[in-house]
Every structure is written in C-alpha cells, then in structure tokens.
Design a protein that fits this description.
There is one protein chain. The chain is of the alpha/beta class. About 45% of the residues lie in helices and about 15% in strands. It has helices at about 5-20, 25-35, 45-60, 60-65, 75-85, 90, 100-110, 115-120, 125-135, 135-145, 165-175, 200-205, 210-220, 240-245, 260-275, 290, 320, 325-345, 365-375, 385-390, 405; strands at about 155, 180, 185-190, 205-210, 230, 250-255, 280, 300-305, 345-355, 380, 400, 410-420. The strands form two sheets. Strands 5, 6, 7, 8, 9, 10, 11 and 12 form an eight-stranded mixed beta sheet that branches. Helix 1 crosses helix 3 (about 45-60), helix 4 crosses helix 5 and helix 13 crosses helix 14. The longest helix is centred in the last third of the chain and has 19 residues, at about 325-345. The protein is globular.
C-alpha cells in the first residue's frame, strides 16, 4: 500500500530529518522513537518517512551539491524525492511552493559526472580516500553505489524448528514474496519489507531477521555438539542464536556483552528460539573475572568486534557521517585488546574467529596480522575450506564480503586455531 502524499506527511519527514541531522544518536533509534511518539502514522506512512530521510543520509553530499548552497531540510527532502527516489514534479505537486518547481528542475539537471569523486560517491573525503587506497577507483565507485542502496530484508531459518523450503512455502501461502538468500543455506530474502513482528514464523521462533552475510560468521565458527562456545561481543544475540542452533542446543554457549540493554534484547529472542544452552552474562570489560575463569577451557570463540560498522551503510547510512579517522583509530586499539583477551579462552586445538562489519583494513587485516605476530601459537584456518564443507563456495583464507560483489552487507572474518 502506497502512502497518500500530503503536506502533513512531508512535514513528518522534515521533522525526522531535522532530528537525524544532529547526528546525536543512531538513525534507526531516532526514527523508531519518532514513530512511537506518532502512532497515528500507518505502515505506509512510516515507510515513506523512513525511506525518504534515509535517502538524504545516503546521498547527503551529492544532494547538498545539487542544492548549490541553498540548503534547508526541506530542500534536501525535495531533491531526495526527485533525484534519488525518481519522483516527478507532478508527484511532488501536493507540497511544492511557488518558485520551487524551477529550482528543483535545475537541481535535478545537475549531471553526476560534474561532481568530485567523493561527492559523487556520497562519502566523506577521508573515507573515500581510504577505500580508493584499498580497492582502487573503479571498485570504490561500485562499492559506494551498492552502499547507497537500501538493504534487502533477510531472514535466518532457525534449523531447530524449521527448514528453508518449509519457511518459503509458508511465506508464499501468506502472500509474502521470498526466495533463497545468497550464500547462506539458512538465508531467506524477502522481496519487500512487510511487517513481520506479528507473523507466526517470527512469533514461534522459526525465523530471525539476520543479513545473509552475517550468517556466514556462525558457519565460520562451525561449533559442534557438546562444545563450550563463547560469543564474546554478543550484543542483541543474533549470532548467539545461530551458534546455539548449529550446536543442536547442546553443550554450553556463553553470550557476553558489556551492555545490559543489548543483552535485554536477547531475552525475548532466546525465548522464541527454543534454545536452552545459552547463558547470557554482562561483563565489565574484556578482562572481567567471568572471562578469566574460562581461560584455556573453551572450544570456540566468536569475536564480532565493536567496529566502525561501515560495511552496514546500506542499513545505517548515518555511520559514514558519524565516524571519523580518530574514532576508527580508537576502535582499532579496542579491537586488539578484545582479541587478545578472547584468545586467552581458547584451549589447544580450539578455534577463534575474529570478525567485523567494517570495510577498513586497519580494523581487519591489520588487527589480525598484528595478533599473529604477537601470538605465534595461533594460525589461520582457511575460510574457503571451512565454508566449503558447509556448502558455501567462497575463495580465500580470510572471509571478505562486499555488497557490490556478494549482495550482502560488508563483512570481514578470519578463523584462527590455537596450535599449542
């Protein structure tokens, strides 16, 4: 159902954008709070507001360039609707004021190839420069174009309760268009973004929302029945639930995180999942006593490290404007400390997986290479072999997922084995 485009609906988008451009809080949280405070907005209205303001966040630099110094939140929204979302002047007629039609036609006529490369890619200069250094000009342009598209909605099938064929059949019966997701044998990709919170597959724990690329991190850990496993930075527990299912609800799975708020989000998901082998625990820091008690006893540890999140810009476009070089350097120091602490848990022959949703080498390869130089008892286990045995065909010792190549969020991960 399409929202009825009115000045009142446009005003809601303008109000939300004003809040977002303060960059005080994560964009998804700001939008969710606004919708909770304005419950009169229906599903179609909320979708219009969210998609429009996120278009401004994604394409902020090129939109500002098209405005040619005549900036306002209103003008940003109009350019986003006309240029990014492809609305015609006739579509926009309900909200256009006197004189705006000519101005908007002029802004829409600006050719992309007249804009500087970083502006055309809608990236801050520092990030564009880093990506060009790593990937080259052409690949950075393709990567940026993919990052500036809305992400699809992926589900992970809970294999304790369902299989992918059965889930797809139920979704089809309910009129929800879906197909197998990329790469992961548990992934389902929806064509649209229906409200799922009340759907029976979600309520009974048969599915969870999780990007198909994120699901490969659990496959890289590849936990076995009866093992002791730690999700070191569990957050809201999406990967914890995947690990528990891969363990067939056996063994012991610790979900550690420094945030009570994030762990609280795990509780209802855990209840739906049917898992009984998960033990959530808040820790103060990576040197917490709860961690030290497990030193040398754990079979497998996943470190989905706190990172810049730049691989998730399709979902969180505000991150590229909220992160900077200093924050990335600060994160890199934290990542190294967390990885060292997690490594102390691994028993000989055990596996440690370091992962981020970052695109930057200083959060990825540099962290792993420095760790291997410090800790010669660990070696890389090629990702291609681990994943290949589970039906995922990807080349390389280190897992690298990019949206323009794999149609997933951007991820990096390395499996490390303690040899002694």
């Amino acid at each position: 159902m399409k929202a009825r485009f009115t000045p009142a609906l446009f005003a809601h988008a303008e109000a939300v954008l004003g809040l977002l451009l303060r960059f005080e809080y994560p964009a998804d949280g700001v939008v969710s709070r606004y919708f909770r405070e304005h419950r009169q907005l229906g599903h179609a209205d909320r979708a219009f507001v969210a998609e429009t303001v996120f278009s401004v966040l994604r394409r902020g630099r090129s939109i500002e360039a098209r405005c040619a110094g005549r900036l306002s939140d209103r003008r940003r929204l109009l350019v986003a609707l006309a240029v990014v979302r492809g609305w015609s002047l006739r579509d926009l007629a309900p909200v256009l004021r006197a004189g705006e039609e000519a101005w908007l036609a002029e802004a829409s006529a600006v050719a992309d190839d007249t804009l500087p490369p970083a502006v055309r890619c809608d990236l801050p200069d520092w990030l564009h420069g880093r990506l060009v250094d790593q990937y080259g000009d052409a690949a950075t342009t393709a990567l940026a174009a993919a990052l500036n598209q809305p992400a699809p909605l992926d589900l992970r099938v809970n294999t304790l309760k369902a299989d992918r064929a059965g889930v797809l059949a139920q979704l089809t019966d309910d009129g929800i268009a879906a197909g197998p997701g990329p790469l992961s044998p548990m992934a389902v990709r929806l064509r649209d973004k229906p409200a799922l919170a009340g759907h029976r597959l979600f309520l009974d724990g048969s599915v969870e929302v999780q990007d198909a690329g994120s699901q490969l991190l659990g496959l890289l850990v590849d936990p076995k029945r009866g093992e002791m496993v730690v999700d070191f930075c569990a957050g809201a527990g999406g990967k914890t639930l995947l690990l528990g299912a891969l363990m067939k609800n056996t063994g012991r799975l610790y979900a550690f995180d420094v945030s009570d708020r994030r762990l609280a989000k795990l509780k209802p998901r855990l209840a739906r999942s049917g898992l009984s082998n998960v033990h959530p625990a808040r820790i103060e820091h990576e040197r917490d006593a709860k961690i030290k008690r497990l030193a040398g006893k754990v079979d497998r540890v996943l470190v989905d490290a706190p990172c810049s999140g730049l691989g998730t810009l399709r979902r969180n476009p505000d991150l590229k404007w909220r992160q900077d070089e200093a924050s990335v350097a600060e994160l890199a120091a934290k990542q190294a400390a967390i990885l060292d602490s997690a490594a102390n848990l691994i028993k000989p022959g055990g596996r440690l997986v370091y992962a981020t949703c970052s695109l930057l080498a200083e959060e990825n390869d540099a962290i792993v290479d420095a760790f291997l130089a410090r800790r010669p008892a660990f070696r890389i286990v090629p990702a291609t072999g681990i994943l290949g045995r589970q039906g995922v065909a990807l080349d390389g010792d280190r897992l690298r997922l990019l949206p323009h190549e794999h149609d997933t969020d951007g991820f990096f991960a390395v499996a490390l084995e303690r040899t002694a």
